[in-house]
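Bit of a strange request maybe. I'm writing a small parser for structure token strings and I need a real example to test against, not something I typed by hand. Could someone generate the tokens for this chain?
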Amino acid sequence: MKPETMSLFEQEMRDQVAAAREALDHARRKADPLLVQAAEAHLDGLVDLARRNAVNVAAPELAT
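Reply from user aminoacidic:
Good idea to test on real output. This should exercise your parser:
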């Protein structure tokens, strides 16, 4: 979906989920179990919030 057709909330949710995925990748590279657990919980919460608001964040966006 093109950015100009997304609502501000949808854009923000996608940005937040992308940042949380990056944080989870970073935590896994550091191999810190507590950091990984916190990052996973944060990402899960954001994905749940997006799903409850009908924002699809399951797949990475395609650059269009």
